[in-house]
Every structure is written in structure tokens, then in C-alpha cells.
């Protein structure tokens, strides 16, 4: 028992020679040579040469040349040349030329020329010419000519002539003549005459007479009387009384009392009390108490107590006690005791005792005694002792 006291193994057994005292392995055995003392590996074995002491790998093996000491990769292998030491990639491999050290991409590969170091794109590839460094687009590709650097479009492509730099459209294309630069439309096209520059419409067309320039409607048509100039409605019609001038609603109707003037809601209706003026919610409804003004949630509802104002959670709900304000968890819920504020875990839950704050484990749980704080293990439990 004296020899086992400091042997934090899983099965309470050391190796054949009983000397793996400080070897935090999973299976309770050291490597074949019984000398992987500080080698925090998963399978209880070091690499073939038994010298991956500080190589925090996943499979308990270093790379082919056994020298990826500080290469925190996922698969326990470095790149082909074994030199991606500080390249925190996902697949444990660098690019073809093994030089994407600071290129935090998703697929663990840079572009064809391996030089998209600071181009934080989604697919881990730059454009064909590999020069869209500061063009934060969605698909990881710029336009055909690779020059839409500051054109934050959705599809990663500019218009046919590649000159809609400041035309924040949805489809990444301007009108047929490529001149609707300031016409924030949805489809990237202006009206038939291409002159509705300041007519923020959805379909890229104005009314039949092409004169609803400032009539922020959805379908490109004004109301029956063509006089809802400043009525930010969705269907091109005002309310029954034709007086919802500044009511930024979606369906072209104001609330029951026709007074939701500055209520930026989605469904064209305010809350039950008609007072969700600055509540940028998704469903067009505030919370039960109608006070989630600055709560940028996803579902358009606050928590049960309506106070998750700055809690940027995923599901639009806070924890049971409604206090996980700065707890950037994945599931939008804190732990049972609601105090895992700085515990960046994967499952959004802390350990049973809710105190694994700095224990960066994978499963979001500490050991039975909740004391494996700095033990970078894979499964999150410590040994039996």
C-alpha cells in the first residue's frame, strides 16, 4: 500500500516492476521498459522508443520519428516531416509542405500554396490564388479575380465584374449592370430600370410605377394607395389604418393597438403588452414579462426569470437559476449548481461537486474526488485513489 499511495493509476496496479509512481496512465501499466514516468498518455504505453515523456498525445504514441514533444495534436502523430510543433490543427497533420504553424484552420491543411496563415476561413483553404487573407467569407474562397477582400458577402463571391465591394448583398452579386452599390437588397438585383438605389426592398424591384424609393417594403410594391413611403412593412402593405409609418415589422401589420413603432420584431407583432421596443428577438415576441430588451437570444425568449440579458447561450435559455451570464457553454445550460462560469467544458456541465473550473477535460466532468484540475486526461475521471 505504501508503494501504491502515489500511483494514480486506474486499476490500482503498477507495471510489472511496480515503479510507475508518477506515471498517470489509464490502464495501470507503464510502457514495456517501465520508464514513462511523466508521459501522460492514454493507453499506458509510450512510443516505440519509450521517450515521449512530455508529448501529450491521444493514442499514447508519438510520431514516426518520436519527436513531437510539444505538438498538441489529436491523433498522436505529427505531419509527414514531424515538425508541426506549434500547429494546433484538428487532424494532427499540417499542410503538404508542413509550414502552416499559425494557421488555425479547421481541416488541418492550408491552401494549395500553404500561405493562408492569417486567413481564418471555414474550409481551411484560401482562394485559387491564395491571397484572400483578410476576406472573412463563408466558403473560404474569394471571387473569380480574388479581390473582394472587404466585401463581406455570404457566398464568398462578388458580382460578375468583381466590383460590388461595399454592396452588402446576400447572394454576392450586384444587379445586371453592377451599379447597385448602396442598394441593400436581398437578391443582388435592382429594379427593371436599375434606379431604385435607395429603395431597400427584398426582391430588388420597386412598385409598378417605380417610385417607392424610400418605401422599405418586402415585395417591391407599396400599399393600394401607394403612400406607405416610410412604412417598413414586409408585404408592401401598411396596417388597416395605414398609419404604421415607422413600425419595423415583418408581416406588414402593426400590433393590435398599432403602436409598435420601433419594435424590431420578426413576425410583425409586438408582445402581449406591446412594449418590446428595442428587443431584438427572433420570433417577434418578448419574454413573458416583456423585458428582454438587450437579450440577444436565439429563440426570441429569455429565461424563466427573464434576466439572461448578456448570456450569449445557444438555445436562448439560461440555466435553472438564470445566472450563467459569462458561462460560454455549448448547450446553453450551466451545471447543477449554476457556477461553472469559467469552466470551458464540452458538455456544458461541471463535475458533481461543480468545482472543476480549470480542469480542461473532454467530457466536462472531474474525477470522483473532483481534484484532477491540472490532469489533462481524456476521459475526465482520475484513478480509484
From TrEMBL:
Protein name: Uncharacterized protein
Amino acid at each position: 500500500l505504501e508503494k501504491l499511495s502515489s500511483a494514480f493509476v486506474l486499476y490500482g496496479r503498477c507495471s510489472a516492476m511496480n515503479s510507475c509512481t508518477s506515471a498517470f496512465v489509464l490502464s495501470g501499466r507503464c510502457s514495456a521498459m517501465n520508464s514513462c514516468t511523466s508521459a501522460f498518455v492514454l493507453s499506458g504505453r509510450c512510443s516505440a522508443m519509450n521517450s515521449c515523456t512530455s508529448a501529450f498525445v491521444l493514442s499514447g504514441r508519438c510520431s514516426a520519428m518520436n519527436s513531437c514533444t510539444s505538438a498538441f495534436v489529436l491523433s498522436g502523430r505529427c505531419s509527414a516531416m514531424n515538425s508541426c510543433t506549434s500547429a494546433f490543427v484538428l487532424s494532427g497533420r499540417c499542410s503538404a509542405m508542413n509550414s502552416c504553424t499559425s494557421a488555425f484552420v479547421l481541416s488541418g491543411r492550408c491552401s494549395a500554396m500553404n500561405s493562408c496563415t492569417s486567413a481564418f476561413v471555414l474550409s481551411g483553404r484560401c482562394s485559387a490564388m491564395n491571397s484572400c487573407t483578410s476576406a472573412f467569407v463563408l466558403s473560404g474562397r474569394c471571387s473569380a479575380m480574388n479581390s473582394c477582400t472587404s466585401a463581406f458577402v455570404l457566398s464568398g463571391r462578388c458580382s460578375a465584374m468583381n466590383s460590388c465591394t461595399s454592396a452588402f448583398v446576400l447572394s454576392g452579386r450586384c444587379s445586371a449592370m453592377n451599379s447597385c452599390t448602396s442598394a441593400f437588397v436581398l437578391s443582388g438585383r435592382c429594379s427593371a430600370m436599375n434606379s431604385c438605389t435607395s429603395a431597400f426592398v427584398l426582391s430588388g424591384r420597386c412598385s409598378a410605377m417605380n417610385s417607392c424609393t424610400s418605401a422599405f417594403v418586402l415585395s417591391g410594391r407599396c400599399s393600394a394607395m401607394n403612400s406607405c413611403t416610410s412604412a417598413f412593412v414586409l408585404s408592401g402593405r401598411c396596417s388597416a389604418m395605414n398609419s404604421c409609418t415607422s413600425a419595423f415589422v415583418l408581416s406588414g401589420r402593426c400590433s393590435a393597438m398599432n403602436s409598435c413603432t420601433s419594435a424590431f420584431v420578426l413576425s410583425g407583432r409586438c408582445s402581449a403588452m406591446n412594449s418590446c421596443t428595442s428587443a431584438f428577438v427572433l420570433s417577434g415576441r418578448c419574454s413573458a414579462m416583456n423585458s428582454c430588451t438587450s437579450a440577444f437570444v436565439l429563440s426570441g425568449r429569455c429565461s424563466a426569470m427573464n434576466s439572461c440579458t448578456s448570456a450569449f447561450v445557444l438555445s436562448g435559455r439560461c440555466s435553472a437559476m438564470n445566472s450563467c451570464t459569462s458561462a460560454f457553454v455549448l448547450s446553453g445550460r450551466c451545471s447543477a449548481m449554476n457556477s461553472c462560469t469559467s469552466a470551458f467544458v464540452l458538455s456544458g456541465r461541471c463535475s458533481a461537486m461543480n468545482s472543476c473550473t480549470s480542469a480542461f477535460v473532454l467530457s466536462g466532468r472531474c474525477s470522483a474526488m473532483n481534484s484532477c484540475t491540472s490532469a489533462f486526461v481524456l476521459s475526465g475521471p482520475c484513478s480509484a485513489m
